[in-house]
Structures are given as C-alpha cells and as structure tokens.
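Because showing beats explaining, we let one protein speak, sequence and backbone structure tokens together, and leave readers to judge.
___
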Amino acid sequence: MRCFISNLPVRLDLPQDIDAERWLPTFRDFRHPASPEEEKEPLFRLSLTDGLPEPQEPKRLLTDEPDTDMGRLRLWETPQAYLIELTTANGTRHQMQLDPSACHAQATVDRNDPLAGQVLSSWVRIGCAQAVLRVQGVSVHASAVICQGKAYLFLGKSGTGKSTHARLWLQRFPDTSLLNDDNPIIRFRNGSLHAFGTPWSGKTPCYRNLSYPVGGIVRLSQAPDNRFTPCREAEAFIQLLPSCSAIRHNNRLYNQLCNTLVRISSTVPVARMECRPDPDAAEICRKRLTADD
C-alpha cells in the first residue's frame, strides 16, 4: 500500500490477506498508486510481519507511558534499533522496531485484538513523525483550522481546550473549516511553512489530504480572562517544543527538530494565549494573528 502523507511518499508492506480499506479507513484519501519515484525512496516504509527478531542486548528502557489513549507504551533502545511496545487496555501486546534513521520499521499486530487497525495506524504515525524530521517537518499535537486560505494551529496540554477553541473559530467565522483536530504535520515547502492534514485526527473524524500556508501558531492555556501574548525567538521555540513528536533520546532526530523549530520561530507568528472557552477568545485570537495580513 502506498500513500502520500504531508505530500511525501510512504509505503506500507502488508500481508496479502490484510484488507487495507478495513484496517486503515482513515488513510482512504491519502492512498496513491505506485510510481517509480515512490518505489525508489519513500520517506518511510513499514513492513507488517508475524514476528520480530529478538533485539540485541543490552536493551535500555527510555520511556514508560501507562496512560496513552491506546494503552501502555514503552520505548527501548537497542544497539541497532528502537523497540516500541504497545499493550492495549485488554492486555494484548504489539511491537515495532524502528531503525535509528527512521527510514524503515518492522511491526507486529495481534489480529485478534479489536484495536488491531488502530494499532497499525499508530505505528505508521509514530514512524512518520520521526521520518518527517529529515525534511524540515514536524508532527504536532494540535488542532488546525483553515481561515481565508491559511492554516492556524492551536497547541496545548491535553484537556486545555484546543478542540474547543477550534470549534469556536468554526462557529464564529463562516470562512473557517477544520483541517485536523489532533495530529497535523507542518513542514517547509518551497521556502514557506505549510500545515498538512493527516490520517490521524483524534476523536474528530477529519482526515483531509490538504495543505495550506501557516498563518500562525498559538499555545493555549485556561484562564479567567482572555490575553494574547506574541512570542519571538527563544520564547516562541519554548511554546512550540512540548507539542512536537520526536524520539528525543536520539541526538540526530532531536537536533533536526530543534533546527526546524528555530526556523519556524522566525518565519510565522507564534503566540501564547490565556483564554476562556468563549467566542471573545476566538475573536481576539484571530484579530491578533491576522493584524499584519
């Protein structure tokens, strides 16, 4: 199966008896016929297998996250690869081995798990998030709207109100639509920063294979009053970094992330906004972000 994600080729080598349409329905608009260019060098390639070779020792645990949406996620580092293990809420274990360059991964998925398709989608998301760093791109945890031909991204901790703020824009401004509600990709293309829809949009079914120039990025936090504060250089970098996906234990990947964020910080408006979940917050945010348009 071949597809374009953030306008870059991704290849999934799936067993013949896997129905990609059923397993990966959110990829429908991103699927693309093979071409000689894609065959030569996809951005990322994932091979689904029945079993992974035993990792070489020593195996060092890097992260252990018991409270992800899918279940418990563990990341190990081995001499030749990263080993990622996901144990879903029903106790089923799935694994992926990702090479340090983030070009290729091998993964297993227990087909008896009702969440098998979602797990496979997660493996592709994790791999692409690392691979896109090579081309000055970043996978961000954000809600993104399209307004007058530009994309605006809202960052923040889980539960901050990113989706609520995006919905306020949709309700308040008739010229606004949703691009992605959880995991857009931003990357430089022809010298300007663009936001791309992806097959991953959280609980909101919005899987749009579209891209728009980025008009601004805002980190939200809840507060009793609405206050918009522009950020520049180091402060802008600080607002962006927590919402970006990367294996930060890998110096090369982390340096690529930081270099891209430095460029973003000097290219598009970045701000933080303390806000209430009300229409005034959307009014203030849009007015300040578009003041120089």
Q: What stands out?
A: The chain has two domains: 2-135, 138-289. The first strand starts at residue 2 and ends at 5. Residues 89 and 178 are 30 Å apart (CA to CA).
